[in-house]
Structure formats: C-alpha cells, structure tokens
Amino acid sequence: MKMMVETLARVPEDQRNTMLSDKMRSLLSLSEKQRTDAMKSMLIAALSLKDEEYLKIADTRTRVLMGFAEPDRNVLMKAYLSCMSSLDTSSKQKETSCMKKILKSLPEQQRETMMKIIPPELSKEIQ
Q1: How far is CA 22 from CA 27, 71, 94, in A?
Q2: For labelling, which of 25, 58, 78, 121 has a CA lying 20 to 30 Å from the CA of 64?
Q3: Residue spans per domain, the chain
Q4: Cα–Cα nearest to 100, from 41, 64, 55, 39
C-alpha cells in the first residue's frame, strides 16, 4: 500500500485523478467493513508521506469525491469518517490541517457540500 500511495504522490494530477477515481469506484463494490478497512490502510499509508506529498493526494481525493453522485459520495464519506475516528492524534491533526487547506481552495458550492456531510465535531476542527 505504501508503494501505491508513493506512486500516487509522484504521478501527474490527471493520472492521480484517474487512479483515485478508479480506486474509489472499486471501494463502492465492497461491504461496509471491507470498504472502511481498505480506506483506512490507504489513509494510514498516505499519512506517512511528507506533508506536501500527502496534500496532493488528499486534494485529489477530495476533488474526485466531489465528482461522485451524492449517494456514492455519502457512502465513501461514511467510510472516511470511520477511518478518521480511529486515527492517532498526530495523524488526525495532519489530516485536519490538510482538509482546512483543501476546503479553502474549493469553489464555494463544493465547500458547502462538503461541510454538509462532515459531522459537526469534525467541521469545527476544519473551519
């Protein structure tokens, strides 16, 4: 998994977009537990990268997620939020810091959409 996320950080944006989109689509075909476990292993591997590399992946992940239909986006966000709740403090802080930067860069409508599906306790941290 670590090699996969290192590759994601190095490839051009359009290729990273395609790779993450394909991965997210494949996650939708899994059971909730399988989806959460797979996403958690990817998230932990990605969080081990340098901040600037991780930010590239997290930014692409967020933008790809916004391209999914609402029902699929909600399924993926539920798994993501489950992963977030199980991270150690340092990893949560890194993810929260990245999400703040990413949300500020999103168009207003996408930012509002993301904020609607993020639970209040997490949205307080990233605003």
Answers
A1: 9, 17, 25
A2: 121
A3: 2-126
A4: 55
Number of Cβ within 10 Å of residue 121's Cβ equals 8
Q: Is 22 helix (H, G, I), strand (E, B) or coil?
A: helix
Q: Are 114 and 66 a contacting pair, CB within 8 Å?
A: yes
**Structure-block tokens of residue 5:** 């996320």
Q: Would you say 47 and 94 are in contact if contact means Cβ atoms under 8 Å apart?
A: yes
Q: pLDDT tens, 81-95? A: 899 889 999 999 999
Residue 119 has pLDDT above 80, yes or no: no
Question: What amino acid occupies position 12?
Answer: P
Q: How many CA atoms lie within 13 A of 12 on its CB side?
A: 2
